[in-house]
Predict the structure.
Amino acid sequence: MDQIKIRDLEVFCNHGVFQEENVLGQKFLVSATLFTNTRKAGLEDELSESIHYGEVSHVITDFMKQHTFKLIETVAEQLARKLLLETRHLEKIQLEIKKPWAPVGLPLDYVSVEITRGWHEAYIALGSNMGDKRAFLDHAVEALGEVEGCQVVRVSEYIETEPYGGVEQDTFLNGALKLRTLLPPEELLQLLQQIEAQAGRERIVRWGPRTLDLDILFYDDAVISTELLTVPHVELQLRSFVLQPLMQLCPYKRHPLLGKTVEELWNALG
C-alpha cells in the first residue's frame, strides 16, 4: 500500500501525568505515515482522490491542543482513531508521538510512543433458532452497524438449516455479514458476545438452542488460536450453513490454513 508521510509536526500542548505539564504545556513532535492507494490520484492529478496532508496536519494540531491526556499512549490511540474514522481513503496509520521535554531528570533526545492502527475485514456468522429468529438476526446486523469503528458492508440472505451437533431442537435461520472494523479480534469477540447477551443468549448446552449466535469466521487473513478465540472458525469447511452464506459474500476468499477458496470448500462439501 502507498504511503504519505508527515514527519515531526511540532505542537505545543498540555499532556502529561504531572499537573505542571497540564498547566504550562510543552512541545510534542508528531509523525504519521498514512497508508492509502495513491494510484488514481497520481493518474488523474486530482487531490480529492488522495489524502490532503495539510488538512491532516491541522486535524492533528487541533486535536492535541483541544484535549488533555495524562499518557501519550492515550494521545496516540485517540488521535489514530479520529483520523481513521474521519479521513477519506485512509486505510491504516502509523503514528508516533515524541515528547522531547519529558520530565525524567536525565539527558535524552525524547521519549515516544509509536502505534499502528487500521481498518480490518471480518466475516461474521449469524444464527438463531429461538423466538423471532429473523428479528434477532436483523437486530445483530443493526447493532453492529451502530458501533463506532464498525461498518457493515454487506449481509447475505438468511437461510433455514437443520440443527448441527446432534441436539434435538428447532431449525436455524443462518446468515453471514462482511464487516469493516477498527476493533482487534479479541475486542470484536467481546462486542459480539455483548450483542448476544442483549438478545438473551444463554450458553448452557453445547450446540444447543440459542436466541442469537455470532461467530468470527475470518479476520483479514489472520490465524488465531487462543483460549478464547480461534480464527478461522473451527470446522468452517464442514458446515454448509456457514459456507452457503459466505458463497454470496466472498466466494474467492482463501482460507489461510487450508489454502482453498470458499467456493472450493463449498464444492468439496458437495
About this structure: The helical segments are 19-24, 39-44, 53-66, 72-86, 133-145, 185-198, 240-249, 262-269. The CA atoms of residues 190 and 196 lie 10 Å apart. The chain is about 30% helix and 30% strand. The longest strand covers residues 2-13.
